[in-house]
Structures are given as C-alpha cells and as structure tokens.
Predict the structure.
Amino acid sequence: MSAAKADAPSVVILELCLPALDVVTPRILSRVDTAVARAGLKDLCDDVQIVLAEALNNIAEHAYGRVALGAVSVTVARHGNDLCIDIADWGRPIIEHAVHDATGPAPEDLAEGGYGRFLIQALSSEARYSRSGGRNNLFLRLTA
Amino acid sequence: MELIVDALPTATIIHVNATRIDAPVALQFKEGMRTLTARTDGRFILDLEQVDFIDSSGLGAVVASMKQLRPGQTLELAALQPIVEKVFRLTRMDTIFKIHDTADQGVVSGEG
C-alpha cells in the first residue's frame, strides 16, 4: 500500500443490492447520486450517473438478458478525492465490459448503440472488469 | 414519456415532457418520434429542456429518430441540459446535430 493511500482510508458510503432491470436503474442512480453528493463529491455526480447507467444497462441486458432475472450489487466508497464503485452480478460474462473502447463509434456512422463502454472508459480514471466464481465484477474509479 | 407538438409556420417543435430518455423508454421515444415526424415535412426541433438525463440507449433513440426522417425533413436539438450536453459532446454527436440554446432560438434561426 502506498503512503498516499494509507493517508486516505476507503470509506464505504453506500451498499445496495437490487434487481438488475432497466426500470430499476433510475432508482439505483438516484440513491447513488444522493450518497455521492452527501459525501462531498458533488463534482462527480454527473459523471457517476452517466457511467453507472451504462454499467447497469449492460448487466441487465447482457449478463441476464431477457431470460433470467438476477441481482446487482453496488458498493460505493470514497477514497480521498476518488470515488470507487464495485459492481457485481451473477449473470453471463459481459463481453461489453471486457473490451476497451477509447473512441466509440464514429459520429458519421450514426450508430444507434455501442456508446456504453466508451462512455464508461471516457469518464473513469480506472475501469477494470473481471470474472470469478460465476460472478462479474466491474471496478470503476472516478477522480474529482 | 410524453411528446408535445407545437406546430409553427416555419418549424415543428417537439417538447419532451420527461426528465429521462433512457433504456426503459428509448423504444417508446423512437416510436413516438416516428409517428410525429410522419405527419409533416420540414424542420423539427426537439426541445430537451425537461430532460436531465440521457444514456446510450436514449442517444441511440435520438439518432434513430433522425435516421427515420424522409428527404426534406430535418431534426435539430434545443436546450441540452448538462448531462445531455456532455453525452453528446463525448460521443461527438454534437457534430452531427444542429443544436440551439433554446427551442425559440431554433425557430428564429431558421427564419433568417
């Protein structure tokens, strides 16, 4: 552990576990928004909303799809001026989270999708996906 | 998701009476836009003043709304709120759409 990190302990500001459904996503976003603002990281609120919406949509659509209903757990921690978000689900592997996309679709292609992974990457200082024991883990760090 | 139409002589303003264009309503939005834009030709100005939030599904639905237009029809955007503005800027879709500060300004700019 670096000295800087030892100086800034990680403080969990919100933990929740709810169904991974697109209609539930706004409720999760709203609770995270309130917690982030209360933690004094108001400047990160907009980016957190954008990033988290894409991650949760990917889980609802790709991990569970239209055949299964499952849970998503979200843990938000403040680490100094960073916000660390751990998102876990128990669905299928999420290829969309595993790839890197530094540019997104070309605007002139008028793509109707495929922006999600790019938006996550563009607004996060760290975005790490892993799969272990039948579980998808997405770790996101946003820096104020 | 409610779309309210204001038919002016030089343009049709479509007010989005919702705070979000996101995954749960994206398809409904696209279908609503298809119905409304099928009725008239000319300029459409999508007024996003009430819309606080858009995700990639919503962005895709706005793009689809433009792609389903006929020749002689155009879709412009107005009153992008901070998150909406950021999503359009990051994805560079702000280079594809004509964007006005307000719907009224959009109407005036087309009359010049």
